[in-house]
Amino acid sequence: MSSLKQIYKTYIQAINDRNWALVISLVHPTVTWNQKPYPAEEYITLMTRATDPAPDLKFHIDILLAEDTDTAGEQIVSARLLIRGTPEKEFLGFRPTGKSVEVVEHVFYRFVEGRIKEVTTVIDMEGLREQMVDVPIFVR
User: InterPro entries this protein is in (predicted)?
Assistant: First the structure.
């Protein structure tokens, strides 16, 4: 189990280092992200949508759980990630404000044969909106 956690930590560090070749080596040739399959290279493109606009953006593991799921050798990793950075360009649909942001992401990974095969994720977009938009959302 600890080796699965170590693989995941290596994966997160590779994203933080923008070491996309290492990330690709840790995923299957096709990765299903939120129920849609992507070739590994396109999966990387999804990640760069967040990392390119905020060059200092880093993923920090807040909670990490790993477990075997069945006799077929599939394993599950679930994590609560804190994503911190200062967007310099449009970031997930929001214009930059010059301020740093912290976004929470809850994510589940299905590992098959020791590599990531499926990713299901939810990002706290409302929390991001509160940090990226200068005008209050609810005005009374």
Answer: Cyclase_SnoaL-like, NTF2-like_dom_sf
Give a yes or no: residue 140 inside a domain.
Answer: no
User: Which of the 8 DSSP states describes residue 73?
Assistant: -
Whether pLDDT at 139 is above 80: no
Classify residue 94 by its DSSP letter: B
Q: Residue 54 domain-assigned?
A: yes
Cα distance between residue 117 and residue 130, in whole Å: 33
Across the chain, what does the average pLDDT equal? Answer: 90
Residue 138 lies inside a defined structural domain of this protein: no
Helices (H), the chain: 2-16, 20-25, 40-51, 125-132
Least confident of 24-28, 32-36, 73-77, 115-119: 73-77
Say which CATH number the domain at 85 has: 3.10.450.50
What is the gyration radius of the CA atoms in the chain, in angstroms?
A: 16
> Residue range 80-96: average pLDDT?
91
